[in-house]
Design a protein that fits this description.
Blueprint lengths: L1 H24 L24 E2 L5 E4 L4 E3 L7 E7 L4 H18 L5 E7 L7 H11 L6 E5 L3 H11 L6 E2 L3 H7 L2 E2 L4 E4 L4 E6 L1 H5 L1 H6 L3 H21 L2
Parallel strand pairs: 4-5, 5-6
Antiparallel strand pairs: 1-10, 2-3, 2-6, 4-9, 7-8, 9-10
Helix pairs in contact: 1-2, 1-5
Protein name: Cytochrome oxidase Cu insertion factor (SCO1/SenC/PrrC family)
InterPro entries: SCO1/SenC, Thioredoxin-like_sf, Thioredoxin_domain
GO molecular function: metal ion binding
Length: about 240
Amino acid sequence: MKGKIVIIYGLVAVVSVGLLIFFMRVANAVPESELPPAKDVGAAKVETFFPIEENFEMVRQDGEKVSIEDLRGKVTVLTEFFAVCPHCAVRNGSELRELVKLYGDDADFRLVCISVDPETDGLEELKAYGEVLGAKPEQWWFASGGETAATHRYLEEVLRFFKIRERKDPLDIQSNGRYAHDLGLLLIDRDLNVVGKWPLADARSEEGRSRDPQLYERLKEDLHQHIEKQLDHERAQ
C-alpha cells in the first residue's frame, strides 16, 4: 500500500509540474479544469469583511521565517495551495501569475500561498514550486506552517476558508491530490482586514461557465478593481 501511495503522489507531482510549465509558456490561456462542486458561484464575490485577529507563523520558500503580521501595511491576495494539487497549478499559473504581471512592480503588493499539506510541502518542495513560477520570495510567498492540524484550524477558523477535506479514494487522490480545499482568493487590506473572497476557479470551471458564461470575467475584473483601490488608497492620503 505504501508503494502505491508513493506512485500516486509521484504521478500527481508530474502532472502538477507539467501544468505549471504549460502556464509559464501560455500565460494568457485560461483552460477548463474539473473542480470540486462549486460552492459560491453566482455571486459577484463572497462578502467576507472581517479583521484577522490572530497571527500565524510560517516559513516561506527561501527559508525565511514570516508571519501574517508581516503583511501589515501591504495589500495582499492570499490563497490555499499544496504542491501536488493540479487545480492549484492551473490557478497559480493563470490568475496568480496575471496578478504578479499587473501589480508585481508595486512594493506594497503581496501574494501569499499557504500550504494545506505542510508536513509534505517542506522547504525543498516550496522552493522548487516557486522557482517554476519565477516567484520572488519577498513578493510571492509559498509558505508552510509546519503542522497540519494547526494550519487547517487557522485557515478554516481565522481566515474562514471552507473546510479542508482529506481524500481517501486512491483514484481521487491520483486525479486531484490529497486534499479538497477552497480555491478562492482572499484580499487583505493594509490593516489586516479581509475585504472579500473571489471564487475565480469555481467561476472558470465547466459548472461555473454553464451557469453564467460571463461570471469569470466579471469576478476577475471586480478583484482587480478592488486591488487597485486598496493600492491607491494610501497614496491618495
